[in-house]
Write a structure and sequence with these properties.
There is one protein chain. The protein has one domain (about 10-70). The chain has no helices and six strands. The protein has strands at about 10, 15, 40-55, 55-65, 70-75, 85. The strands form two sheets. It has a three-stranded antiparallel sheet, with no helix packed on it. A three-stranded antiparallel sheet has the order 3-4-5, with no helix packed on it.
Length: about 90
């Protein structure tokens, strides 16, 4: 899955951070389930209560939730670790 991210002034390793509203409409590729999970329906954990970008809560490495089929998703390997304000 590769969500479309809007630049909001907060970067991690030269990439814009994900915020809560980036994932719900992001397509999911390669879901092995039937019917296939096509998009994220909910982000239930891993939403920052303090850090915001563009007024929206930043998603953390602990982000997880459910897909349109009710299956769970989670971040397995965050590759961005260093925050920089732009």
């Amino acid at each position: 899955m590769k969500p479309r991210v809007v630049r909001r002034g907060l970067m991690v390793d030269d990439s814009p951070v994900l915020v809560d509203e980036d994932l719900p409409l992001a397509p999911i590729a390669g879901c092995p389930e039937t019917p296939p999970c096509l998009q994220i329906a909910e982000v239930s954990e891993g939403v920052s209560t303090r850090l915001k970008a563009g007024g929206r809560p930043v998603l953390l490495a602990t982000a997880q939730g459910t897909t349109n089929t009710g299956s769970r998703w989670q971040v397995f390997e965050p590759v961005q670790t260093k925050l920089e304000a732009a």
